[in-house]
Amino acid sequence: MPLYEHVMIARQDLSNAQAEGLIEHFSTVLADNGGKVVEHEYWGVKTMAYKINKNRKGHYAFLKSDAPAAAVQEMERLMRLHDDVMRVLTIKVDTHAEGPSVQMQKRDDRERGERGDRPEGERRERSFDRGGDRGAAGDRRR
């Protein structure tokens, strides 16, 4: 069967237990239609980039499923009809990644960029040229 990943955003005024109850409800919908949820994660309440239905925050949930397309379509249909679910995203994947998702990993465990790679005490040189020779493109004097 094909593998899918789903992200669901539920209303912010639900309790954590109600949000996790939605995960269980939609897991049983998949199971009733011949699929199964391999793994699920509750990411908690997060602030969204923009308001959705007058909500600034939402309960985020992530599900990994192994289900036929008809079961996924039925689950998505019921999610879109449910009053507590604001958004749903489903992606078909080739394989499920092992371990926790990026959202569940601690910030310190993530790969750090240029800042984290510098040795202790070493700073980047900054050049503050306040006048000197700016060159032809940067010359603003007339």
TrEMBL record:
An example Gene Ontology CC term for this record: cytosolic small ribosomal subunit
CDD domains noted in UniProt: bS6
Family annotation (Pfam families): Ribosomal_S6
Annotated stretches, region: Disordered: 92-142
Entries under InterPro entries matching the protein: Ribosomal_bS6, Ribosomal_bS6_sf, Ribosomal_S6_plastid/chlpt, Transl_elong_EF1B/ribsomal_bS6
UniProt key word Transmembrane: no
Any one biological process term the GO annotation gives: translation
GO MF annotation, one: structural constituent of ribosome
Biased composition, class Basic and acidic residues, residue ranges: 105-142
Assigned keywords, A-Z: Ribonucleoprotein, Ribosomal protein, RNA-binding, rRNA-binding
Function, in words: Binds together with bS18 to 16S ribosomal RNA.
Similarity section: Belongs to the bacterial ribosomal protein bS6 family.
Stated name of the protein: Small ribosomal subunit protein bS6
Species the sequence originates in: Gemmobacter aquaticus
Lineage of origin: Bacteria, Pseudomonadati, Pseudomonadota, Alphaproteobacteria, Rhodobacterales
Encoding gene per record: rpsF
